[in-house]
Amino acid sequence: MIKTDISVLAKENAFDLIGKEWMLVTATRQDETFNTMTASWGGIGWLWNKPVAFVFIRPERFTHDFIEDADRLTLSFYGEDYRKALQLCGSKSGRDTDKVAATGLTPVRLETGATTFGESRLTLDCRKLFKSSMQASHFIDRSVLERWYNDQPGGSLHDIYVVEIEEVYVR
What we know:
Layout: E1 2-4, H1 14-20, E2 23-28, E3 34-39, E4 42-47, E5 50-57, H2 62-69, E6 72-77, H3 83-91, H4 99-103, E7 107-109, E8 115-117, E9 122-133, H5 142-150, E10 159-170
Antiparallel strand pairs: 1-10, 2-3, 2-6, 4-5, 5-10, 6-9, 7-8, 9-10
């Protein structure tokens, strides 16, 4: 992996990158254990005079605990060749499944201590800046709440994390 300038993101379509290609959100604890999950909700932009990304993670997801314990996380992107690996990482819990063994992905520790995978075509190494928990009373369009939350028993509302993109790596 090669560290590059953040300007490489200007060549990417964030709608395709996150919404269609998906991403792995990976967080590493201080004891160097990590967990990863697939996400297809989020964004990339500019906030507080910083390049940022924002991701949505349900508190019941195993990766949520890792994100809470870590100062950083990575967002990594793979392309169509890795669709099956990302499907597995989004449908199996790290509580029950060794996702690295099941997918064949190769963990790579970055200079900051964050984890990504050698197969990633693009990795954003990010530092957490902000977290907020969604609240049902804050939905202006109630149909969004009904569509995405009320029909999923036991599913809670997402936590929203805003992270600063500090390093960008390409393969």
